[in-house]
Amino acid sequence: MSSKPLDYENLNENVKKCQYAVRGELYLRASQLQKEGKKIIFTNVGNPHALGQKPLTFPRQVIALCQAPFLLDDPNVGLLFPADAIARAKHYLSLNSGGLGAYSDSRGIPGVRKEIADFIERRDGYPSDPELIFLTDGASKGIMQILHTIIRGPNDGVLVPVPQYPLYSATISLYGGSLVPYYLEEAADWGLDINDLRQSIGQAQQNGITVRAMVIINPGNPTGQCLSEANVKQILQFCYQENLVLLGDEVYQQNIYQDEHPFISARKVLMDMDPPISKELQLVSFHTVSKGYWGECGQRGGYFEMTNIPPKSVEEIYKVASISLSPNVPAQIFLGLMANPPKPGDISYDQFVRESKGILESLRRRAHIMTGGFNSCRNVLCNFTEGAMYSFPQIQLPRGAIDAAKKLGKAPDVFYCLKLLEATGISTVPGSGFGQKEGVFHLRTTILPAEEDMPSIMASFKKFNDDFMKQYE
């Protein structure tokens, strides 16, 4: 029988090249162990609600009413829902003919895009145009859409920080482009050196690659650092000099656990600069409801905003967005609520602030518990998690462990993480899934397990690590 189009040997080679470590070998093994009855702590992915974070009350009340609008006609609706949630649900239902069950504009509901534009203006101090904001099924879909638009073939390169979130390596591979790495400096709290950027782009050019875009992840994933204003300004100047579009992955902008390095958007820094750079540098910024104190990963709500992108290019991006007809509408409502939460004086304001602050303050404490726990372990070094949701400790593996991994045909950090999983049930992601310097090994774990469980989790890790080091040293 002749081979068929979906037989493995006939698949698109770019699909086969894709690797996504967050749901890779470790995750599959953890899922298998869970089926066998072992308790697994899934810290491999930033999925707050799966690890016990409670949803915020107000947005869920609004969504409940939008999903079941007949409740609004019930005379007792005011007994179950506060008046401001009822009013907001009516507002969103009025914005999309047919409610949540109908398609919206391919860019998203205009009224929601206006709320996001107002949020951006409050954040940055500069007006934002709703027509240049596209709502997407999570920030990932927006990032993929823009990369698809930029990458024309294998000679087109994208500068990506290493360690990087594997969405970028997988998507660039899928679309047939070339990832051009620039290395963050672990000894400098994962800082970025412009000279390293110049070396990366020079090496790419020698290999016949035209670098067309640069990615920044701020706050960092998996590294957790927050870029300073001066660093962002340097990056913008570099992109302008090299004629690159800057992709600003800012999905963790609400996840800040220290006061020394506050989040500042690439757009604000750009707008603060003088022409011609402020009027010419092309920037696409991304945000989502999956992170922050919302943690609504399953809702798949995200957006991107374009700055200094020509109108004809915006039309082409709209055309591609139209192929999917519409981003999912409930997620668009979540985005509107994130951009325009309850205000002082609203019935739900005090509860919303109490819930939000409680989550963020707990995350801050967990960041300290986890960083301190890792640094108390033998042969483990960990920079403080300034932002985002992750710790990325360096594991200084002894030669015996490296040799044992080699005999099994596994990367040393994969070997370590598998042993950790089997011994403790803690499911992490090896640093090799994000990229790291040769001979240096890491793992990534979220800081999301419940705060009351964190001391026992870190004690379990410490015991495993001490035993592992004794065994292989």
TrEMBL record:
Gene Ontology CC annotations of this record: peroxisome
GO process annotations (BP): L-alanine catabolic process; photorespiration
Family annotation (Gene3D superfamilies): 1.10.287.1970, Aspartate Aminotransferase, domain 1, Type I PLP-dependent aspartate aminotransferase-like (Major domain)
Cofactor(s) essential for the protein: pyridoxal 5'-phosphate
Pathway: Amino-acid degradation; L-alanine degradation via transaminase pathway; pyruvate from L-alanine: step 1/1; Photosynthesis; C4 acid pathway
InterPro entries with a match to the protein in the record: ALAT1/2-like, Aminotransferase_I/II_large, PyrdxlP-dep_Trfase, PyrdxlP-dep_Trfase_major, PyrdxlP-dep_Trfase_small
Residue ranges of every copy of the Aminotransferase class I/classII large domain listed in the record: 84-447
Record key words, sorted: Aminotransferase, Pyridoxal phosphate, Transferase
Family in the record: Belongs to the class-I pyridoxal-phosphate-dependent aminotransferase family. Alanine aminotransferase subfamily.
Subunit structure: Homodimer.
Protein name: Glutamate--glyoxylate aminotransferase 2-like
